[in-house]
Amino acid sequence: MSYGTPPPGGGYEPPPGGPYGQQPYGGPPPQHPSATTALILGILSFVLCGPITGIPAYIIGKRAEREIAASNGTMSGDGMAKAGWILGLISMILFGLGLLAFVVFFVMAVAFSSTS
């Protein structure tokens, strides 16, 4: 066999549908606009550790996640919505624990200063 002759059996046949195969119909589904908002608010609440952006991140993220699930695949962004509400929830929990620790510290400081 030399380099100039095709291999036995007819050689390589391109797949049906053209030289690059069948192109997918359409594109990816559009992203839910509230998913991005929830993620941004969740990141801000986690960095700033506050309920000012944590509560909206949780509410908007949960609502966007429900709407994406109800869209039956016509919308995407469920991972961003979930990350947003989880970050919002974590920041609210951390803020609550910090507030509780502050109150306990303040009560103990008052109790110990009054006994001295």
UniProtKB/TrEMBL annotation:
<feature type="transmembrane region" description="Helical">
    <location>
        <begin position="38"/>
        <end position="60"/>
    </location>
</feature>
<feature type="compositionally biased region" description="Pro residues">
    <location>
        <begin position="1"/>
        <end position="18"/>
    </location>
</feature>
<feature type="transmembrane region" description="Helical">
    <location>
        <begin position="85"/>
        <end position="112"/>
    </location>
</feature>
<keyword id="KW-0472">Membrane</keyword>
<keyword id="KW-0812">Transmembrane</keyword>
<feature type="domain" description="DUF4190">
    <location>
        <begin position="35"/>
        <end position="97"/>
    </location>
</feature>
<protein>
    <recommendedName>
        <fullName>DUF4190 domain-containing protein</fullName>
    </recommendedName>
</protein>
<dbReference type="InterPro" id="IPR025241">
    <property type="entry name" value="DUF4190"/>
</dbReference>
<feature type="region of interest" description="Disordered">
    <location>
        <begin position="1"/>
        <end position="33"/>
    </location>
</feature>
<dbReference type="Pfam" id="PF13828">
    <property type="entry name" value="DUF4190"/>
</dbReference>
<keyword id="KW-1133">Transmembrane helix</keyword>
